[in-house]
Amino acid sequence: MEPILIYGVPHGCSFGSIVAFAWSGLPYRLARVDMLSELEDAVFTRANPLRLTPALLLPNGEVLTESFAILQHVASKAPEGKLAFAPGSPQQDRLNEMLAFLVTGFHGAWGPLFSPFKYVDGDEAQKSVHAKARARAARGYAHIEALLADRDWLVGGKPTIADAYFAGVARWGADLQVFDLAAEYPRVHALLQRLEADPAVGFAHDAEEGRPLGEGGGGFLGQVSLSELGGRLAA
User: Fold this and answer.
1) Can you give the residue ranges of the GST N-terminal domain (predicted)?
2) Beta bridge mates, 56
3) Confidence (pTM)
4) What does the alpha-carbon distance between residue 71 and residue 169 come to, in Å, rounded to a whole number?
5) Could you tell me if 119 and 168 lie in one domain?
6) What is the pLDDT of residues 104-163, one digit of tens each?
7) How high does pLDDT run on average in the chain?
8) What proportions of the chain, in percent to the nearest 5, are helix, strand and coil?
9) Do 67 and 104 have their domain in common?
């Protein structure tokens, strides 16, 4: 049985896991969750009681959660060296470092930018939280901008699971209209533009938007509904 990636919309960080699967060439299916209307779905809650995406239903019926773990899992199953580097190598250490930064320090800035009202009450307090979160995201962009001065990809001279995840989260600055990436962080913008031209990234956009899924998905075998997913979950 092939794994099933449960991904969230809209604007989910699970976008990166779709890209990684598409790049890997591994067989997989997708299950779409609307994070605005299906958070309380019984099957989704069984799959991940924390009600977060991504979540990966494994062939044995168990569920793996958290982007860091799922991306490392995909890289470990992909043909050797395709999405990562040799275990214990300096390049793999740097890949782990970059991915950890993206899924913690960088991702963590965005919650208050999407929904400041979830953190504090009152317009002035929300504006303050928003400004502080923007400053945190700016530090993240600046860090990546500096690293890209001597490289085309985030780590090791090739697209990896870090770039896949980056495609999903670095877009948020433009999506929320809180950064002009082309003007403020031109190297970040250039990397995002290269990624946007990749068929796997186009496939991930189609999956998010609910459009027909065609080329670019690698070993994609089809979508499954949440109700269909329930029969695959381990008891």
Assistant:
1) 1-82
2) 5, 64
3) 0.96
4) 14
5) yes
6) 999 999 999 999 888 889 999 999 999 999 999 999 999 999 999 999 999 999 999 999
7) 96
8) 55, 10, 35
9) no
Residue 6 to residue 233: CA distance in whole angstroms: 12
CB-CB neighbours of 27 under 10 Å: 13
- Give the Cα-Cα-Cα angle 11, 13, 16 (nearest 5 degrees): 115
Domain CATH for 34: 3.40.30.10
Is residue 133 a contact partner of residue 192, using CB atoms and an 8 Å limit? Answer: no
In the prediction, which pLDDT does 80 show? 86
- For residues 37 and 107, membership in a common domain is answered with no
Instruction: Return the structure tokens found at 182.
Output: 């082309």
Distance separating alpha carbons of residues 208 and 18, to the nearest angstrom: 10
Q: What's CA 122's distance to the chain center, in Å?
A: 31
Confidence of residue 214 (pLDDT cuts 50, 70, 90): confident
- Domain of 74 in residue numbering reads as 4-81+199-231
Q: What is the pLDDT of residue 116?
A: 87
Longest CA span, the chain: 52
Q: How many domains does the chain have?
A: 2
Give helix 90-101 / helix 67-77 axis angle, nearest 10°: 150
Is there a single domain that holds both residue 103 and residue 8? Answer: no
| Pair 125, 108 in one domain | yes
Q: Which amino acid is at 39?
A: L
